[in-house]
């Protein structure tokens, strides 16, 4: 597992406290909005809602098309667009 991890226990009202070292590492605090998701395998994740989604996503796919993305795109078009 990457980063910091900790176990938490759900209370009677299905609430839990995010441990201090997790809050500090994730740089979250009072007033921040968190987004919680779960997948079909029961895995859950919790992320801080970005103030600007475009800025948060900028550069996330860097290198997906290799070193020369325009050439890779042109080759893809030539090979498959018939």
Description of the molecule:
The protein has 82 residues and is α+β, with helices and mostly antiparallel strands. The protein is built from three helices and two strands, in the order αββαα. The protein has a two-stranded antiparallel sheet. A hairpin with a 5-residue loop joins strand 1 and strand 2. It is elongated and about 60 Å long.
Supply the key terms.
82 residues; alpha+beta; two-stranded antiparallel ribbon; 3 helices; 12% strand
Write the layout of secondary structure elements.
Blueprint: H1 20-26, E1 34-38, E2 44-48, H2 53-57, H3 69-80
Antiparallel strand pairs: 1-2
Provide a brief overview of the structure.
The protein is of the alpha+beta class and 82 residues long. Helices cover 29% and strands 12% of the residues. The longest helix has 12 residues, at 69-80.
Unreliable segments of 5+ consecutive residues: none
Alpha-carbon distance between the two ends: 45 Å
Radius of gyration, in angstroms, nearest whole number: 20 Å
What amount of the residues lies in strands?
A: 5-15%
Please tally the β strands and state the result. Answer: 2
């Amino acid at each position: 597992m990457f980063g910091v991890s900790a176990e938490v226990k759900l209370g009677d009202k299905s609430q839990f406290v995010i441990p201090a070292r997790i809050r500090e590492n994730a740089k979250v605090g009072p007033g921040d909005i968190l987004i919680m998701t779960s997948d079909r395998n029961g895995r859950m994740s919790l992320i801080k809602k970005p103030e600007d989604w475009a800025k948060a996503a900028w550069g996330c796919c860097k290198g997906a098309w290799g070193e020369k993305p325009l050439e890779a795109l042109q080759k893809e078009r030539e090979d498959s667009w018939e």
